[in-house]
Each structure stands twice: as structure tokens, then as C-alpha cells.
Amino acid sequence: MSAAKQAGVPHDATRLAWALRTSARPLSAYGVHEQGGGLIDVPKAWDLLRGPVQVPEIQVDAPTRTLMDPYLRRPGHGRGLYEREGWAPGDTGTRTITLTRTSGPPGATTYGLRWRGNDGTFAAVTRA
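Given the sequence above, the corresponding C-alpha cells read:
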């Protein structure tokens, strides 16, 4: 933040979070559940932050299955896919996750979507 302030680079919370998440790299010795978003690459995050990027605001509505469900604003739904309890080896299922862009230019915009750290277990089908 200090460098961004000195250089006159926009550094609001949304852009900072985006740059840190985007620059992180997975650690091969750990599972995704053990490392979160991975190891932050500060020089790469700084390069991203300095670029002319407009980070869109996207609302997420996804089903949840966690012990915290009763405490969510809308039980059984959250801002991400949280299914930490109740699965056993061999279980399968389909979940619908709704992404709604609330900022940026009018009209349709195409975004790439991928599973981060996926070992091949998960697949996504996108719909307009």
C-alpha cells in the first residue's frame, strides 16, 4: 500500500485483494484445503496492481453444506461454495453457483472460469 500511495496507483481494498489472489501460486507439497489461495508473489501482485485493470464487482450465490449453515444470513446459501461436511468417498453431486456482475460496462461480458488447485475431481459447465 505504501508503494501504491507513493506511486499514485489505485489501491482500494477490491484491487488489493484481486492482485494478491491473482498473484498467488499453489504450493505443490500441500493440498488446496491446507494452503488456501497459495503463496503470495509480492512483485507479481505489484505489477498487477499497476496495470490498467478494472476489477468487476461480482455477487456469488452458492449452496452451502457446513456446520455454520444455521448462522448464515440465508441458511444453506452463501457467497461461495462451502461444503465442508457430509461428503464420503464416492459421493457425487451437482451444485448451481450463480455469478452476477454488478459493475462495469453494460451488456454481456465473457469471463474465464476455472477451478484453482483442482486435481480433476471437479468440472464446471457454464451457462449464459
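The chain has four helices and four strands. Try to locate this feature in the C-alpha cell string yourself.
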